[in-house]
Each structure stands twice: as structure tokens, then as C-alpha cells.
Backbone:
């Protein structure tokens, strides 16, 4: 599109009331001016709004009643986003399928950034303007009514620089019917680099597993999680069957939110953290899994292809991260070695033949 593109109510047949992008690329060469009743909607594809005019004005203008909405694809602003007068329109983010980079000037945006969660989360706005960018005139509205996932931290906004022109208390959060296990929310705005705004949805359930659900893990994992927000302790279940029925431990919140199961053999493991509140009510968590590769022994002594080795050498190694015991094989043929020691203790990780090796022979 060349020149200024107006998006407004359909009363003027020469003016668009809706521009919608679902695929492909949209790169207008002039201003985008969204007036009252007009909507720019992006559900997919890629849009690039290039720099058009001076730093304190904007190539994208959203008047009161106008909406720029994105729920999918990639939106990149190198043009300033600008609201006319003190009551500008709305930049609306829906769900967590979009990647959005805005270019907001020092004068800020005198409108609303609106975040509407889908069942799984929300996309953030990233401001890549390389100077001070003000949120002082901007309003944030967050609607998490449709969210059904676990509690946790959701970053809504990041800016490239530390900022003292803050949003402050100019926000509204609607948690609504986000689930019976939710107990509220907290809001945090930091002025560090980057400038960050985070919404935390509080839940009775333990969340944010480490290892993450379905992760492939090597070595010896330590299980970690974010505490249920009403929990005084957590019951830990870990098993190789799903659902896990083997109770491991009760971990007090005052001592942390992690559990070390010790060395585990290679396998797929299922685990669950049940939060226990002050009234001894148990809130069962989700079942998570990880696949463990316990790891092979390493740091062999003597080294591979070493020469001049003593006939009474002690073989030594570093145990794999999830090792429980060691079996030692030794021979003169790499394809046909003999099991010479079985179920050796984890430490010391070493083995010595009862009889000397034969000098000059390769083992």
C-alpha cells in the first residue's frame, strides 16, 4: 500500500473498516491510521511497519475507538506507534502464538495495551526503541478468564532500557473463572535493563517443573518446582509407571522446593508434586515426566591407547551422573571382553586385577 492507509467505520465506502492478515507478508509504504471503529487484525503471516515520520509522531496512529489486534504470526514495528490526543485506541494481544516487536517513542502511547489470555498463555510486547520509552500515559488491561494452565509468571512487556517513566498502578487484571485452584495474582514492574512488567498468576498447585515435562536429562537430576501459593509442604511422588504411586518424601516449603532422589538408572520417570496447605488439604499436581540417560563412565585411567602401563595397574574412572553400580569388562579383544567384576560400589570408582596383566599385551 502506498500513501496513508485509513481504517475506520464503513460509513465511507472509500475507507476500510477492517484489514486482516492471516498469511503472507504485509508491508505498507505509508502511514497506518486506525480511526474509531477501524480494526487491523493479524492472525498469521508477517507484518512490517517501517519508519515513516519523526520521533515524536508515529507511522502507526491509533485513535480512540481504533484497534490493532494480533493473535498469530510476526508483527514488527520500526515505525513509532502513536496515539492521538490523550485517549488513544487499543493495541490488543490475544493468546500466546504471536511474536510482537513495537517501537514506542519517549512520548509514549496514550492508549491501552490489552492482553487477552487463551487457554495456554499470552504473548509479550517487546519494545526495541533504543532510548527512554514512557509508559506513563499507557493503560494495561489483562483478561485471563479463558486461561486453564498452571500458575506462574507471565511477562507482558519488555523494554530495551531501564526506565523511570513507569506504568505504575495504571492497570486492570481480570482473572475471573480461571480455575478453582487459582487464588489471585500479583503484578511486578522493574526499572532495570530491560524494563519488565510481569503478571504472576497464583495457584494452590505446584507448577514450573524442573526438569520440564518431557525433557531428556543426562546425569543425576534434582527435581524442582514452584511452590503452591498456599502450600506449607509438598508430597513428592516418583515412579517409572504412570501415574506415579511411589511416595518419596514430604518437603517443607521452609526448606525449599526441590528434591534429590539420588542416583537413578536410565529410564523414563513420572513424577508429581502434591501441595499441602496449612489445613492439611492436599492439592494434587499434574503428572510430569523426564527421560534419563544416566551417562557413561568417563575420565578413564589409563587413557585410551596408553603405552607403558604397569602390569599391576589400577583401572579408575569417573562415574556417570546417574550410576548406582559398576560392571567392569576387560580383555584382549574389544569385541569379546570378559565380565571381570560386577555390581561394584559407586565409590571408589576403580578396579584392580587379582593377578598381574601380561606385559606387552594390548588390553
Residues:
Amino acid at each position: 500500500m502506498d500513501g496513508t492507509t485509513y481504517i475506520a467505520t464503513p460509513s465511507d465506502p472509500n475507507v476500510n473498516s477492517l484489514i486482516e492478515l492471516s498469511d503472507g507478508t504485509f508491508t505498507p509504504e505509508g502511514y497506518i491510521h486506525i480511526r474509531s471503529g477501524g480494526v487491523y487484525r493479524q492472525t498469521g503471516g508477517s507484518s512490517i511497519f517501517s519508519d515513516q515520520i519523526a520521533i515524536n509522531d508515529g507511522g502507526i496512529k491509533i485513535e480512540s475507538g481504533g484497534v490493532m489486534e494480533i493473535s498469530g504470526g510476526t508483527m514488527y514495528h520500526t515505525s513509532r506507534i502513536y496515539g492521538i490526543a490523550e485517549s488513544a485506541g487499543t493495541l490488543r494481544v490475544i493468546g500466546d502464538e504471536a511474536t510482537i516487536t513495537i517501537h514506542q517513542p519517549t512520548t509514549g502511547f496514550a492508549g491501552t495495551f490489552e492482553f487477552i489470555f487463551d487457554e495456554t498463555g499470552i504473548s509479550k510486547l517487546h519494545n526495541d526503541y533504543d532510548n527512554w520509552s514512557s509508559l506513563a500515559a499507557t493503560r494495561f488491561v489483562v483478561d485471563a478468564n479463558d486461561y486453564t494452565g498452571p500458575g506462574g509468571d507471565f511477562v507482558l512487556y519488555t523494554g530495551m532500557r531501564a526506565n523511570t517513566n513507569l506504568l505504575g498502578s495504571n492497570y486492570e487484571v481480570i482473572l475471573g473463572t480461571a480455575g478453582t485452584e487459582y487464588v489471585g495474582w500479583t503484578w511486578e514492574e522493574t526499572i532495570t535493563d530491560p524494563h519488565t512488567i510481569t503478571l504472576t498468576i497464583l495457584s494452590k498447585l505446584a507448577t514450573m517443573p524442573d526438569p520440564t515435562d518431557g525433557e531428556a536429562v543426562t546425569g543425576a537430576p534434582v527435581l524442582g518446582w514452584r511452590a503452591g501459593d498456599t502450600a506449607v509442604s509438598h508430597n513428592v511422588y516418583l515412579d517409572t509407571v504412570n501415574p506415579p504411586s511411589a511416595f518419596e518424601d514430604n518437603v517443607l516449603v521452609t526448606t525449599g522446593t526441590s528434591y534429590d532422589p539420588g542416583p537413578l538408572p536410565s529410564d523414563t520417570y513420572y513424577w508429581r508434586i502434591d501441595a499441602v496447605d496449612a489445613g492439611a488439604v492436599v492439592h494434587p499436581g499434574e503428572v510430569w515426566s523426564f527421560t534419563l540417560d544416566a551417562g557413561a563412565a568417563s575420565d578413564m585411567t589409563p587413557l585410551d591407547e596408553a603405552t607403558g602401563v604397569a602390569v599391576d595397574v589400577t583401572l579408575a574412572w569417573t562415574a556417570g551422573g546417574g550410576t548406582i553400580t559398576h560392571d567392569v569388562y576387560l580383555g584382549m579383544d574389544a569385541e569379546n571382553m570378559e565380565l571381570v567384576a560386577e555390581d561394584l560400589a559407586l565409590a571408589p570408582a576403580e578396579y584392580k586385577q587379582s593377578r598381574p596383566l601380561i606385559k606387552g599385551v594390548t588390553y
Summary: The chain has three domains: 5-203, 207-293, 298-352. Residues 298-352 form one domain. The mean pLDDT is 85. Residues 44 and 73 are 4 Å apart (CA to CA).
